[in-house]
Design brief:
By secondary structure, this protein is of the alpha+beta class. Helix content is about 40%, strand content about 15%. Strands 4-8-9-6-5-7 form a six-stranded antiparallel beta sheet, with helices on both faces. Strands 1-3-2 form a three-stranded antiparallel beta sheet. Helix 1 runs parallel beside helix 3 and helix 4 packs across helix 5. The mean pLDDT is about 95. The structure holds iron/sulfur cluster (2 copies). One iron/sulfur cluster (SF4) binds next to helix 14.
Length: about 350
Amino acid sequence: MAEKVYRELCETLAKRRGRYPGKDIPEFYALVEELFTPEEAAAYNAIPKGFHPADVIAKVLGKEVKEVTPILEGMADKGLCTAGSMGEITFYGAPTFVPGIFEFQFMRGTKTERDKKIARLIHAYKAAVDVDQGPVTITFPTTRVIPVDEKIQNDNVIHTYHQVATYIEKYHPLAVSTCFCRHEAKLLDETDDCGNPDDVCMQFGIGAQFVIDRKMGRQITKEEAFAILKKSEEAGLVHASINRQEIDFLCNCCACHSMILKTALAQPKPGVILNSGFQPEHNPELCTSCGACVDRCPAKAIIMADGDEWDLNLDRCIGCGVCATGCAFEAIALIERVGVLPPPADQKALLEAVKASQA
Ligand code: SF4
Ligand code: SF4
């Protein structure tokens, strides 16, 4: 029975796709047998696409709602399914491994022996899938960089989706959790610490409510959210999220650990595939050639070898603005980058764009 349900889980996760779909390899079973009880695996398999109340899932399982609800609630607490309430009714969803289940495992920032074991199992599974799939080719980005908007020159058109502040002002509640990429690395090897702040992963609205309800993060005020943004910008972290105009989370990424940035920067032309819609404009009259921007640029897009003039490789520049925030002489501002399409309006438009790019 257990073996059968885990095989079905593999098939379900293969259909749901994501960055790491289900693969019929030993590393998959070692991981899911630690994450899911057989009962939980069966419940995951029974959740139809989208979000559904417990009675719909109970019907698929042929069980009573009162029997299935505690299983789903336990799974939501463990980050194996999502849960959100509308009025009195809770709707459950079955997320992919990535984005979804893997990240949920590390957002609490805890360091128990089980956390370390799960980190090792996830790492082994991702490594096996990476070998199997080969290098990732992004045909249409599912994530995007959001620029440091205060560095955008005044005479540029700034859309609301270019401004993180828009989302902080608009959504309630707001939450912060531990950066799962940096935390996963530390669970695998506690010396693997780049020194960047950990508590900077933000969620907005429904996403925040889920994280708060399931104790994967904590609710924050708008003032705290702006302070986290400032801390992230000072540290040289890149604002990144899903490639939609409406977002429900904001990662503050380092080039050394962030899956979003590492995947993008491994592309032949990251600046073309993952761009905020802006690029730096350099003012040679203000520049002292201190080199701070070269050191901070996560994409290694600035060229300034000894005696050379400041130059920019647009094929690599992702338009994050980290160079501008690090310039003490105000010698860099962001200007609009011509030819960058606006992000898709919503999830449906994003999925259609990805599909069209793969046709
Ligand atoms: S940080 Fe500013 S002053 Fe220093 S090299 Fe870069 S642009 Fe010039
Ligand atoms: S030059 Fe580097 S730091 Fe500056 S916007 Fe481009 S990618 Fe970001």
